[in-house]
Amino acid sequence: MKIRCDVCDKEEALVFCTADEASLCGGCDHRVHHANKLASKHLRFSLLNPSPSNNSSPICDICQEKKALLFCQEDRAILCKDCDSSIHSANEHVKKHDRFLLTGVKLSATSSVYKPTSESFSSSQIVMSLDPILPRNLSQLLRATALRSNLLRR
User: Fold this and answer.
1) What is the largest CA-CA distance in the chain?
2) What is the mean pLDDT of residues 125-151?
3) Total domain count for the chain?
4) Could you list the residue range(s) of the whole structural domain that residue 21 is in?
5) Which among 22, 88, 127, 138 has the fewest CB atoms less than 10 Å away?
6) For the purposes of burial, counting CB atoms within 10 Å of the CB of 98, is it exposed (0-12), middle (13-18) or buried (19 or more)?
7) Domain B box-type spans what residues (predicted)?
8) Does 39 fall in a domain?
9) What is the pLDDT of residues 102-116, one digit of tens each?
């Protein structure tokens, strides 16, 4: 399965925009990020060819130092492995947060991407379902923004 664009929900997503926290196909990426000068400065990286040495990889929202690996839907944050591990092992509530690898792979509510560090993570596993990265309301907002910019051009 492929990750679908969060804007049109039809095409395969090619990039992930860290500012919009959205995966976008080529056409929607062009429309959204060429709509104005500010949007054109958004940091985007390839979902098809992710590279660990890529300088355009996003930085963790918490520590602002390490490269981000995950997106937490409830926290609306991209996180490095260390920050994710400390945040999402704090209590039973945060362990259930929906988290995604930045390539769009959804993790189970109790999974860990790293080697188990305690008994609570020993039965963890990664669920390989390629679900959209973002909730529907943000997708609707992005669609409305794209529609509005199309109307303004007329």
Assistant:
1) 60
2) 46
3) 1
4) 15-153
5) 127
6) middle
7) 1-47, 55-102
8) yes
9) 765 556 554 444 444
Domain assignment present for 1: no
Tokens of 121: 């993570």
Identity of the amino acid at 15: V
Task: Let me know if residue 4 belongs to a domain.
Answer: no
- Looking at the predicted structure, is the pLDDT value of residue 140 above 80? no
**CA-only gyration radius of the chain, Å:** 16
Q: What DSSP line would sit under 25-75, residue for residue?
A: -HHHHHHHHTSSTTGGG--EEESSS--TT-TTPPBPTTTSSSBP-EEETTT
Locate tokens 């390539």: which residue?
103
CA angle 52, 57, 99 (to 5 degrees): 90
Say which residue the tokens 């109790």 belong to.
110
Q: What pTM was estimated for this model as a whole?
A: 0.45
Lowest mean pLDDT among 4-8, 81-85, 98-102: 98-102
Nearest Cα neighbor of 35 from 154, 131, 150 is 150
SS3 assignment, position 87: helix
Residue-averaged pLDDT of the chain: 71
Pairing of the two strands 22-24 and 77-79: unpaired
Contact 67, 59 (CB under 8 A): yes
* Distance between CA atoms of residues 113 and 116, nearest Å: 9
